[in-house]
Structure formats: structure tokens, C-alpha cells
């Protein structure tokens, strides 16, 4: 006999295998939900073939970690035929949400990315009510950043009122609205204010009153308390040694500043003592590999494109410095910086980054901040990190880890769901 869940969490996002911090965040919130009393968690996401068609950076399928019992990943098939090339997939997701919202199970639905996920949830809720069936759903929409910088901002700049209104009204139709950083919240409000000024709408006022902050959720247990012997063994497989490399680990896009990092590494004194390890995939991978191949230090620059979530913490823990020289681009601004917080949890070398977007909220006072697009400053920062006495390095690492513990998935989950008033009642042990 099939057991009917007492409560359910539905998460709508770009899930694995997409290389994206908020893909990992969805996983972490799902795991936290199971620990906190949700009987069932369903992650509604995109078919693998559709993800591959988009050109998004993807992890190798055989490296995806399994989810805990009670967490189900659904990839609804497209609806209709080839004459509806894009809407078919969104129709599949929206249709599945309607089914979940009308089956009698009390449900909380969390969407990450306003477009298209929150739009799909808004449409599904409206359709569910129109069926006349009982609906018991609470919705939470999380603006993660690029959905604002890439969608809402472009609408503002291009004067596309209708598209902007669609995104913002869908967002505000949700029961609870959150953003991943104060930077993201203010970006939404300022974009809404520009729309209001031209069209006489009241989006900014509503956004300012309703949007709260919910920082990304991280599985801190994967980064804290790593066995030094396992770290050494993991590095050895890659031909690396502890403190023997400078690390970049993120998506390979123009906004991440990897070109500046390579130039800075070339100018650093540390180039003689440490290798540069670049971990990730993305649209700039080919260009960056070509740039590195032309470097006089080509034999000391290593690219790794097959690192999974299990190996990542050990590479972070073993590095001499972690560098993410992010820079604002029209298509993307770093609205938080999940990888930076993960690095601080893992320990390892100093974090070197820029004051871009919401990065300061992720690192606090625990990173070396360099100007955007400044290889010389990156070189100086790398050399300073390499020169730190061991005792001072350990002290700084401990302080950074303490700061980053606020992003533990259990803490983030409790704050987010308590704020929404939808935490399940704890059952007796």
C-alpha cells in the first residue's frame, strides 16, 4: 500500500548535473527538509537532454551524488510536438506542479530563479485553484541573482515593460519572497523603481516591503573536519601537494575573471613554488585553455574538468590560496559567491577575491580584496598569501570558518521556513 505523505516540499530549480551553486543549494535544502520533518521532497527540474541543448556547464552524469531516501528528482517530459520548441518543456514542469498541488498533500513549493521557475509556479498555482480541487500550497520564491541581472535588468535596459512586469508580478504573487543577498534585494528594488518611474507602476514599493534575505544553504559537514590523510591522498591522485598550488574552482565564464588570474599568476613570485589549478567547465574553457597554452608557464597551469562534489572540499583544503577575481558583466554579476563560503569552510589558503556584487556578504572581513581586472594586485595578493606564517594562516582560517558557518544548510533552512511559518511539527524521538 502506498503511503500518503503528511507534508511535502517541492523545489523547482536547475538541479544536477548543472554546475551552479544554486543547484547545490537546492540539494542542500532538500536534505535539510528531510531532517527537519518533511515526509517527501520532490525536486522538479529539466530533462537531461534539454540541459545539454542549452550549453550550460554540466558535471559528468556518473559523478552525481545520490540523494537521501524520500527525495525524488523529477524531470517532466515535454508536452506537445516540435512546433512548440521551448514552451513544451515549461509546460511539462508546470503541468507536473499542478498535479502535485491538487493531490491533497499539504505542500510547500520553493522556486529558485524567478524566470522561468517562479513564473511556472505562479501559473501552476493559478491553474490548480481553477480546477476546483482542494489546494493546500504555500509558495516561496528565491531570487538568486542572475535571474535579476540577466532578465529583469535587461528588460529595464531594453524598455521591455511587459516581460519585466511578468517576472516581477509572478515573484510578488508568491506567499513569501526572498533574495540570496542584500545586494540582490537592492538590485531588484532599483530595477523595479526604474520600471515604476516610466510606467507608473508600484513594483518597488511592494518589493521593498516584502523581500527578505535568505543566504544560500551549504552542507558545512562536507567541508569541516576533513581528514588530513584523505586530503593528502586525494591530492596525490591529481599529482598535487598540500600548499603547492593556487586554486580557482567555479564556472569558466568571462565574469569569473580567470583571464586576470592567469595574468596575475604569471607576474607573481609564487609561480616558481606553486602551480595554478583551474577547476571547472563553462563557455570560456576553450579560450582559457588556449590562453594558458600560450603562457610561458603553460607547464605549470593545470585544468581539471572532472572534479565532483565529493572531491571539491579536499582540493579547497589543500590549496595555498583560492582566487576568484570576479568582475561585473552585462550577463552576470556575482550576487553572493557560494564557492567563496565553501572555501572558507574547508580551510586551506587565503581567499582572494573582488568587491563585486554580493561577494562581501559571503566573505565578510575574511578575504583579501583586490580591484577588478587588476592582475598586478592579484600577483601581490598571491605572494602575500604564500608568505603567511603557519600560525597566522591557521588563525585566519579558523575565523573565516566561524563566519561561514552561518550558511550551514540547517541554519538557513530553519530561518527560511520559520520565517514562512511552514516548519513541520517536530515528532518525538
Automatic annotation (TrEMBL):
Q: Which SUPFAM superfamilies match?
A: UDP-Glycosyltransferase/glycogen phosphorylase
Q: Name one matching Pfam family.
A: Glycos_transf_1
InterPro entries for this protein: Glyco_trans_1 (IPR001296)
| Keyword vocabulary terms for this entry | Glycosyltransferase, Transferase
Q: Which residues form the Glycosyl transferase family domain?
A: 241-398
Q: Which domain of life is it from?
A: Bacteria
- Gene3D superfamilies to which the protein is assigned, alphabetical: Glycogen Phosphorylase B (3.40.50.2000)
Family, according to the entry, reads as follows:
Belongs to the glycosyltransferase group 1 family. Glycosyltransferase 4 subfamily.
Its protein name is Glycosyl transferase family 1 domain-containing protein
Amino acid at each position: 500500500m502506498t503511503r500518503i505523505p503528511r507534508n511535502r516540499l517541492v523545489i523547482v530549480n536547475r538541479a544536477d548535473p548543472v554546475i551552479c551553486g544554486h543547484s547545490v543549494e537546492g540539494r542542500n535544502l532538500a536534505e535539510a527538509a528531510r531532517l527537519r520533518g518533511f515526509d517527501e521532497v520532490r525536486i522538479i527540474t529539466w530533462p537531461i537532454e534539454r540541459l545539454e541543448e542549452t550549453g550550460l556547464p554540466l558535471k559528468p552524469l556518473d559523478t552525481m551524488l545520490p540523494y537521501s531516501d524520500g527525495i525524488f528528482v523529477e524531470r517532466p517530459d515535454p508536452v506537445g510536438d516540435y512546433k512548440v520548441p521551448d514552451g513544451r518543456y515549461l509546460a511539462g514542469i508546470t503541468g507536473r506542479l499542478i498535479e502535485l498541488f491538487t493531490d491533497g498533500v499539504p505542500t510547500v513549493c520553493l522556486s529558485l530563479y524567478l524566470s522561468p521557475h517562479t513564473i511556472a509556479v505562479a501559473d501552476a498555482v493559478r491553474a490548480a485553484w481553477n480546477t476546483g480541487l482542494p489546494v493546500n500550497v504555500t509558495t516561496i520564491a528565491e531570487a538568486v541573482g542572475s535571474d535579476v541581472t540577466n532578465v529583469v535588468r535587461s528588460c529595464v535596459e531594453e524598455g521591455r515593460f511587459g516581460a519585466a512586469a511578468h517576472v516581477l508580478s509572478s515573484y510578488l504573487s508568491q506567499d513569501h519572497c526572498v533574495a540570496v543577498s542584500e545586494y540582490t534585494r537592492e538590485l531588484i528594488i532599483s530595477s523595479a523603481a526604474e520600471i515604476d518611474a516610466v510606467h507608473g507602476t508600484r513594483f518597488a514599493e511592494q518589493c521593498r516591503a516584502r523581500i527578505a534575505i535568505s543566504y544560500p544553504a551549504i552542507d558545512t559537514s562536507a567541508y569541516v573536519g576533513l581528514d588530513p590523510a584523505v586530503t593528502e591522498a586525494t591530492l596525490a591522485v591529481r599529482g598535487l601537494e598540500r600548499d603547492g598550488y593556487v586554486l580557482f574552482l567555479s564556472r569558466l565564464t568571462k565574469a569569473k575573471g580567470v583571464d586576470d588570474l592567469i595574468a596575475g599568476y604569471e607576474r607573481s613570485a609564487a609561480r616558481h613554488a606553486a602551480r595554478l589549478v583551474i577547476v571547472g567547465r563553462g563557455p570560456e574553457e576553450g579560450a582559457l585553455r588556449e590562453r594558458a597554452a600560450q603562457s610561458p608557464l603553460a607547464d605549470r597551469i593545470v585544468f581539471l574538468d572532472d572534479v565532483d562534489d565529493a572531491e571539491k572540499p579536499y582540493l579547497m583544503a589543500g590549496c595555498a590560496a583560492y582566487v576568484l577575481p570576479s568582475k561585473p558583466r552585462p550577463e552576470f554579476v556575482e550576487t553572493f559567491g557560494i564557492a567563496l563560503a565553501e572555501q572558507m569552510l574547508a580551510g586551506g589558503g587565503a581567499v582572494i577575491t573582488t568587491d563585486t556584487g554580493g561577494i562581501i556578504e559571503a566573505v565578510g572581513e575574511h578575504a583579501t580584496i583586490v580591484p577588478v581586472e587588476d592582475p598586478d594586485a592579484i600577483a601581490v595578493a598571491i605572494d602575500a598569501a604564500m608568505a603567511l606564517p603557519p600560525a597566522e594562516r591557521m588563525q585566519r582560517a579558523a575565523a573565516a570558518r566561524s563566519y561561514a558557518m552561518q550558511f550551514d544548510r540547517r541554519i538557513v533552512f530553519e530561518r527560511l521556513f520559520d520565517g514562512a511559518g511552514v516548519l513541520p511539527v517536530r515528532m518525538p524521538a
